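Reading a protein record of the kind used here takes only a little practice. To see the layout at work, look at the sequence and tokens printed below.
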Amino acid sequence: MTALAHHDESAPDSMLRQLDFMVGTWRCSGTAFAMADMPQHATSAEVTSKWDESGYWLAATYAEKKTAENAHPFRFTGFFGYDPEIKKLVVGGVDSMGGYSTGASDGMSGDALVFSGPWHMHGMTANTRDTFRKLGNGRMSHTGEIEQNGKWSKVGEETCTKQ
């Protein structure tokens, strides 16, 4: 990689502070809904996230636990940040199914933070939406959705507790 000719010494954008509630280690439990060849099943996961790269990126890993009911646990590793060109929070990451995704958000709306964008997997691309909701008392929820044939369907839903 080539270094940029100009280096901006400014601090990370203050809009990133909207992601502070996601920092830490979380225990999550919920449901992965039936899709194609995957039956509906309960999920249990750990999420770890911390500020990285001089505070410009929130590095996050979501890792489901393997169980008899969840023989192929899902894992996602990504980075949340801010794009000053489009003036939106952004996310980009890769997953344990060979997929990669990107998304953007206008920021917090009440207690919800919604990212939407494409998920590329198995030779296809689908629109996705991830909603993170602050529940208070060290809790948050996450709902993942995918758009297929013009209709939005839940992929997973869980509640997380900060450790």
Q: What stands out?
A: DSSP finds no helices and ten strands in the chain. The first strand starts at residue 24 and ends at 32. The domain at 15-162 is CATH 2.40.128.20 (Lipocalin).
